[in-house]
Amino acid sequence: MMPKFLPAALALALLAGPALAQGTTSQTVPAASSATSAKAPKADRTAKSKECSAEADQKGLHGKARKHFRSACKAGKA
Questions:
Q1: How many domains does the chain have?
Q2: How far apart are CA 47 and CA 54, in angstroms?
Q3: DSSP string across 9-46
């Protein structure tokens, strides 16, 4: 009986420890909504992104040049 009990007890100890430790933290995580509330609504961001993509297409930009242009365009610098 002892040889069968020892591996089961060892497996329980190894697997139960991390599972129990997950619920013991008392730290609070700030809400993600406060970080996103300063940004434009998703529909506005999507529309701006599509406009910038269309403008990059018209200019024939590809690769890094397109990426830099779109970043500047979405930030309102282009």
A1: 1
A2: 11
A3: HHHHHHHHHHHHHTT---PPPPPHHHHHTTSPPHHHHH
Asked if residue 4 belongs to a domain, the reply is no
Domain encompassing residue 57: 41-78
The whole-angstrom separation of Cα 2 and Cα 20 is 26
Total-model pTM: 0.46
Query: pLDDT digits over 15-62, tens only?
Result: 877 666 666 555 565 555 544 446 667 787 788 999 999 999 999 999
Whether the CA torsion 42, 43, 44, 47 is positive or negative: it is: positive
Query: Which residues have a Cβ under 8 Å from the Cβ of 55 and sit 6 or more positions away?
Result: 69, 73, 78
